[in-house]
Amino acid sequence: MRRGEFFTLLGPSGCGKTTTLRVIAGLERPDAGEIVLRGTVVAAPATGRFYPPEKRNLGMVFQSYAIWPHMTVAENVAYALELRGRPRAEIRRRVSEVLELVGLDGLEERPATQLSGGQQQRLALCRALVYEPDLVLLDEPFSNLDARLREQMRVELKLLQQRINVTVLFVTHDQLEALSLSDTIAVMNNGRVQQVASPRTLYDAPASSFVRDFVGQNLLLDARIGTVLSDMRARVTVDGFPEEMTFVGRLSPHWSPRPGDAVKVAVRPEDVELLPPGALDHASALAARVRTAVFLGDRYQLAVVLENGVQLQLQAPRSQTDWRPDQQVGLCLPAEAVTLWPA
Fold first, then answer.
1. Is 1 part of any domain?
2. Coil, strand or helix: which one is 194?
3. When you count CB atoms within 10 A of the terminal residue's CB, does the N or C end of the chain come out lower?
């Protein structure tokens, strides 16, 4: 991790994210390998080296916040500095500074148990920041908040991280949190890292079928290779459609298919171009029929069924047409948005 970076471990429950975080924090001992912080090896089972948590200068915000209920807001934040023997004047100054940073100034004497969920989350963050750690570890800190407050706290955390340039290691199973907050994401599954990349790269160029399916939504269609092109692309025919109706897509990594091979066509729902009735071109679009059209305010959510019987969920702009059940539509798959994977 680079200094000032917001780095996220993303993956399903049980994949090893929190265990990794706890090993870095020193709350668990690794079985092998090394952990290096600021150029210093703090854990190396092969040599018996192990720095305890209090020697690593890390801050941590737990999923449950772990706020001390018998202390006031100010006492919760000050306690870490008191343990370090800092002068009282410095403690008062630092506590005041971090509480102001997160909007808790004026609540110094309030009992911690009288704070709302969002305020407790801010307090836990203050306690992790007050002694200026080299790295802040966040273990799904928004999981106990409602959806609206979670969205607000995501924005506040990103602005705070950029303002003070603190280095953050964040753990979450929420794709939206990872994509919106991170500079770099490591996608994990079954204890292994599947891909490390920027949010945009993960979304647009997944390195495996697991990353493809875990990060965002995909429409998947069965197809067969017609022609393998020279620029890591191929032309395919979707099963159940005429052979003359073909689409071009880029090949997934580390794969060299042959003509006739079965493939999966993957495309993001938002990349599918919908042709309304009257504009359907059967030569270049998959014909489908609308089953349901749900108006969501800013867009329509469409359930459509293709001519080959495959059902898909799509998004349609509210400005395009007044979508209705039983309408015939066409689905255009842009070549730049289509990826091809082994079946």
1. no
2. strand
3. C
